[in-house]
Design a protein that fits this description.
Layout lengths: L8 H6 L12 E6 L7 E6 L2 E2 L3 E2 L11 E6 L1 H21 L10 E6 H14 L7 H9 L3 H15 L9 H11 L5 H5 L5 H8 L3 H16 L1
Antiparallel strand pairs: 1-2, 1-6, 2-5, 3-4
Helix pairs in contact: 2-3, 3-4, 3-5, 3-6, 4-6, 5-6, 5-9, 6-8
């Protein structure tokens, strides 16, 4: 896998999955360690500096730079090519910069980053044998549906460590690792029971705060 060691912020942009800080500074960062035994950290960033690049990655509660998921390397490897192919197909259609996963920092435009994290949440605590189900169900969702699920989950249980395996995060895992749904089932508009339960236990204040931060990032 190529490396991004000692590259400039501008070079990272040119290698990114469609990230353009002029359009929006809001983006996601996928940090892939050189050692294959170490996990992959995926974080959400609301700001960007021409000198320093992404805002610092943090495991705290600050929304800017917050780690959204820590994924075992073996599970990342299982979805990396699926994500690359899906993202580059759509980026090409829009005439935007396509990307390639590299060791160290990888920048992803905000809407694609939301979709990436959603799939990572689905498999982080799942049986590896169910990853193919998660991929199939994720691929069966429209991008807008992925964004909506990400927003709801991030608002309630989006912290990379503290939100793991509870509430919406757990509901996403159950939903996407079930047997692949049919087109008829996917088009059914009724919210699944596990989502209704998770939504009922969501924290409204946190949801409002996170939604505001997301809007500010998109405006930036």
């Amino acid at each position: 896998m190529p490396t991004t060691a000692d590259v400039t912020p501008l070079a990272l942009i040119k290698r990114s999955f469609g990230f353009d800080p002029v359009e929006s500074q809001h983006h996601f960062l996928v940090r892939i360690p050189r050692a294959a035994t170490q996990p992959v950290n995926i974080s959400e960033h609301l700001t960007w500096s021409e000198q320093h690049g992404s805002s610092p990655m943090t495991s705290g509660n600050a929304p800017d730079g917050q780690i959204r998921v820590v994924l075992a390397r073996s599970k990342w490897d299982a979805i990396a090519d699926v994500l690359r192919v899906e993202f580059n197909r759509r980026l090409k259609q829009q005439g935007l910069q396509v990307g390639l996963w590299r060791v160290d920092e990888n920048l992803v435009r905000r809407e694609l980053g939301k979709e990436l994290v959603l799939l990572a949440w689905a498999i982080e605590d799942a049986d590896p044998a169910l990853i193919t189900n998660a991929i199939a169900n994720w691929q069966g969702l429209y991008p807008e549906e992925r964004w909506w699920l990400y927003t709801q989950t991030a608002a309630a249980t989006g912290h990379g460590l503290n939100g793991r395996n509870i509430g919406w995060r757990k509901a996403v895992r159950f939903a996407l690792t079930e047997n692949p749904v049919s087109e008829t089932q996917r088009d059914a508009l009724e919210l699944p029971e596990f989502y209704r339960r998770a939504e009922a236990s969501a924290q409204p204040r946190l949801m409002e705060t996170l939604n505001d931060a997301d809007k500010n990032g998109e405006e930036g």
